[in-house]
Design a protein that fits this description.
By secondary structure, this protein is an alpha+beta fold. The chain has six helices and twelve strands. The strands form three sheets. The protein has a four-stranded antiparallel sheet. Strands 5-12-7-10 form a four-stranded antiparallel sheet.
């Protein structure tokens, strides 16, 4: 009986995802030892990452390869092409996802490389994506008159634009690259697809985002409280003078 033909993506030892390739190509790579039992493979029909040796249709091919010397060992995680393994772990809101979940989640992301001084989002524009900062440094700013007001600096592991995933509203500030940076973009359309097809991935991601937002709100409330307390103390001091 002929092998069922499915598409596969191969996370190779050079940290690049190749494919999709068909069954014949994958088998050829097994024979050439370009794919080893612990090489990660994304099986498109199942929408899941697996070690190649655990994929049923490849087991017999690895059995046939037993006894041949192995010249290298695959040591890569199924994350995203062009991004070093472990880079996504810099983003705290992804820490609750397993490597396999990250591999599936990565299928909904787009890598963006930006140069110093590039404007990533502009105040007043309609938002349609969230960004995760993997490398580099960016600043959040607002322009009042001709003066730039820096609101915050964001480093690797931070994220921004998350509100636009829900309301597609106008951006509240500019975000500008202070240096060459690498980001992951999650569009509102991709996120909607993620929630519909993989709610088990979307749920922990949303919980982590909400926890971060709650922390930010608490910090803002604390700063607002300190401002009011300082203002009242100043007014009382003027009243006594």
């Amino acid at each position: 009986m002929a092998e069922t033909q499915h598409g596969y993506k191969i996370w190779a030892v050079d940290d690049v995802v190749y494919g999709p390739v068909d069954h014949a190509v994958a088998v050829g790579w097994i024979a050439e030892q370009r794919v080893l039992p612990d090489t990660w493979i994304f099986v498109e029909k199942d929408k899941v990452w697996k070690a190649a040796g655990e994929v049923p249709e490849f087991k017999k091919h690895f059995a046939e390869a037993d006894g041949r010397p192995v010249t290298r060992v695959a040591e890569a995680n199924p994350l995203i092409a062009g991004i070093k393994p472990g880079s996504l772990r810099k983003v705290s809101i992804l820490n609750e996802l397993s490597d396999q979940q990250l591999g599936r989640f990565a299928q909904f992301m787009e890598v963006q490389y930006v140069l110093q001084h590039d404007v990533l989002v502009r105040q007043g524009e309609s938002g349609d994506a969230m960004y995760l900062l993997l490398e580099g440094l960016v600043r959040v700013r607002s322009i009042i008159g001709d003066k730039e007001n820096t609101i915050a600096h964001l480093k690797a592991g931070d994220f921004f634009g998350e509100i636009s995933l829900f309301d597609h509203g106008l951006r509240s500030a500019d975000v500008v690259a202070n240096q060459h940076s690498v980001l992951l973009k999650i569009s509102a359309e991709s996120f909607q697809k993620l929630t519909e097809e993989f709610p088990e991935l979307a749920t922990p991601f949303l919980v982590a985002v909400c926890q971060t937002l709650v922390h930010r709100i608490r910090e803002d409330n604390h700063r607002h409280y300190d401002f009011i307390r300082f203002k009242r103390a100043a007014e009382e001091e003027r009243g006594r003078s």
